[in-house]
């Protein structure tokens, strides 16, 4: 299983299963001397936690423990390992149906790849639960990006036919919108859209069904010149990380597939000088030219599918008897993943942009050596 992301400067290795003793991440490559904001990590983890009828009933405290790479309040520069213990497993829910493959989940593909040795309980390593440590790692990356004024926020742009209002082009309004999203559990800008989306999710839940949607993310204040041509372009690295999130089925930058409908004269973003700074009048290319940031906001959309585990009866197969079968699932599931996936998307964006911006932002040299005496210890 390849659950490791090898960036140019950092590497992340995820471990754990939904119903195992713990989940976690090993984060290698962080420079020494970063004073981690542990409350900042808790705040981010809180956004991923299930709440109300629009989420799974499984309640986990998601308290984390940093078991290496962190000493006297600072990163040491050696691998940082962060552990979250699972405390609310109902593994018996999965016993009766363990050979009945949930449609559109990873049960069948896991059987084919791991020959029955996989931990099938609660989706095992394929569970959305494994995204909690990603959020913790993303919070650390975000902390470093914030030092440079770089901000990330996402909203649910669409849920079936219910659309949110778009991000504003006016910097002050945009700033307020981003703050609102980062303080909200349900990340939607229009109150009316938030109410209708919640009702849609609750309705789906009542019918034993689920819904998906589209997240829209904006990154502001990313300086021009970050990224690479070709294989390690901003789009390539971001897509790699975004498509790693379970249930993500589409990623689109700027106008994305909308470019197909336009002439070049409509699609191009004209350059102009504004207050001595290079800017573009439109931002159809999402702040990226040739894989490299041009200083405009990075904008991308991520499609999240409806939760595959629904409570309605479904047709499937019995893997053991190799017969057709019908499945009525047990267990606790999200009627919608999208609101919980928002912070996972933000985290992946932070991870990608920190790794890509490492040299331009001077991450390796951000702190000169300070003795423990100077730190007042
Ligand atoms: C935050 C989050 C929560 C999720 N919750 C559930 C869930 O409750 N039930 C479920 O069947 N799938 C859930 N998923 C999605 C599955 O993990 C995913 O659909 C499955 O692993 C198959 O992968 P694929 O959809 O990418 O093909 C969740 C995903 C995320 C990111």
Can you give a write-up of this model?
With 377 residues, the chain is of the alpha+beta class. The protein has a single domain (4-365), classed as 4-Layer Sandwich (Chorismate synthase, AroC fold). It is 26% helix and 23% strand. The chain has 8 helices and 18 strands. It has helices at 38-48, 107-114, 131-146, 171-183, 191-206, 234-243, 264-267, 338-357, and strands at residues 4-6, 11-16, 22-28, 64-68, 70-71, 74-75, 80-85, 151-159, 162-163, 213-220, 248-253, 271-274, 277-280, 288-289, 292-293, 298-304, 314-318, 323-327. The strands form 6 sheets. Strands 1-2-3-7-4 form a 5-stranded antiparallel β-sheet, covered by helices on one side. A 5-stranded antiparallel β-sheet has the order 9-8-10-16-11. The protein has a two-stranded antiparallel sheet with strand order 5-6. Helix 6 (234-243) packs antiparallel against helix 8 (338-357). It is globular, with a radius of gyration of 22 Å. Residues 56, 105-106, 123, 126-128, 131, 245-247, 305, 307-309, 333-334, 337, 340-341, 344 line the site of flavin mononucleotide (FMN).
